[in-house]
């Protein structure tokens, strides 16, 4: 081997040894860096785990405290629930008793209602009988009155001393009638009749009503009939002589006491009666007085 060849080999050997050592140093550096990274990661994870464990421990303590509180509340709620169950049981018992009493009361009310209905029916029947009896009594009174007038009229004519009705007055069954046409209120008409020695007409029978219808002159006339009002309501009607109304000749739908102000009675053109305000000045009047013998 010559010197040139040896030198060439020696240089190649140096290059090989230098490259291996360099690689080894590079690997050692990488391994050291990775070791540092791993240690840092380990420390970081240890710190994170420590924090998480501390937080979990705190939360566990809180949860345990809440669990104890929930147990205490559950125990209290159990006691309250037991009390409520006892109260509900007592209320159910009380309600059952009340229900029984209510059913008994309803039964008694039903029986009372049935009795009241029977009594009401009996009262209606009695009222109808009384009304019928009063109507018959009124008709009987009017019949007696008419017969009495007829008898008196006959006696007067037999005696021949009866006064004739004044001029413009019309005779009928012992009375004289005057038809006044000038309109005026009911009170003015009554005063007019009083000045003439008479009173507003009192109609006691259908015959008298027919007589007046025949001689009416197509006007409205005040009658001697007024309402008896109590507590703002019309209770009955009375004639000017104080006798209660028995015979009537009302128009359809009358008396209706319109506006609670119709206290006086007048005869329409048709002859039918109608209640009207006493202050009305649209009607004349019919005066009546007995013939003297």
Automatic annotation (TrEMBL):
Q: What is this protein called?
A: C-type lectin domain family 4 member G
Instruction: List membrane-spanning regions.
Output: 31-53
The cross-references to Gene3D superfamilies, in alphabetical order and at most eight, read: Mannose-Binding Protein A, subunit A (3.10.100.10)
One term of GO molecular function: polysaccharide binding
Q: PANTHER family of this UniProt entry?
A: MANNOSE, PHOSPHOLIPASE, LECTIN RECEPTOR RELATED
Q: Reply yes or no: does the keyword Membrane apply.
A: yes
Query: Which GO CC terms are listed, alphabetically?
Result: plasma membrane
Q: Does the keyword Transmembrane apply?
A: yes
Q: Where is the C-type lectin domain?
A: 172-282
- GO BP annotations listed: alpha-beta T cell proliferation; immature T cell proliferation in thymus; negative regulation of alpha-beta T cell proliferation; negative regulation of immature T cell proliferation in thymus; negative regulation of T cell mediated immunity; positive regulation of viral life cycle; T cell mediated immunity
Q: Which keywords does this Swiss-Prot/TrEMBL entry list?
A: Lectin, Membrane, Transmembrane, Transmembrane helix
Database matches in InterPro entries: C-type_lectin-like (IPR001304), C-type_lectin-like/link_sf (IPR016186), C-type_lectin/snaclec_domain (IPR050111), CTDL_fold (IPR016187)
């Amino acid at each position: 081997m010559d010197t040139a060849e040896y030198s060439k080999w020696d240089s190649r050997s140096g290059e090989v040894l230098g490259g291996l050592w360099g690689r080894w140093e590079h690997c050692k550096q990488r391994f050291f860096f990775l070791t540092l990274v791993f240690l840092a990661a380990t420390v970081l994870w240890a710190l994170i785990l420590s924090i998480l464990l501390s937080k979990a421990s705190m939360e566990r303590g809180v949860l345990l405290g809440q669990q104890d509180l929930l147990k205490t509340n559950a125990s209290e709620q159990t006691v309250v629930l037991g009390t409520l169950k006892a109260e509900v049981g007592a209320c159910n018992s009380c309600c059952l008793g009340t229900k029984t009493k209510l059913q008994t009361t309803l039964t008694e009310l039903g029986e009372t209602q049935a009795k009241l209905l029977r009594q009401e029916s009996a009262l209606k029947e009695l009222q109808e009988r009384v009304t019928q009896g009063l109507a018959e009594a009124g008709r009987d009174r009017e019949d007696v009155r008419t017969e009495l007038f007829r008898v008196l009229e006959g006696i007067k004519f037999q005696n021949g001393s009866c006064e004739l009705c004044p001029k413009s007055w019309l005779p009928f069954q012992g009375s004289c009638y005057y038809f006044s046409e000038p309109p005026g209120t009911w009170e003015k008409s009554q005063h007019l009749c009083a000045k003439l020695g008479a009173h507003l007409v009192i109609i006691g029978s259908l015959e008298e009503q027919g007589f007046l219808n025949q001689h009416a002159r197509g006007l409205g006339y005040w009658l001697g009939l007024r309402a008896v009002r109590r507590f703002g309501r019309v209770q009955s009607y009375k004639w000017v002589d104080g006798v209660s109304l028995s015979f009537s000749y009302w128009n359809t739908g009358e008396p209706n006491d319109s506006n609670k102000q119709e206290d006086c009675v007048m005869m329409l053109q048709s002859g039918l009666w109608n209640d009207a305000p006493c202050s009305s000045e649209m009607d004349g009047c019919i005066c009546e007085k007995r013939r003297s013998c």
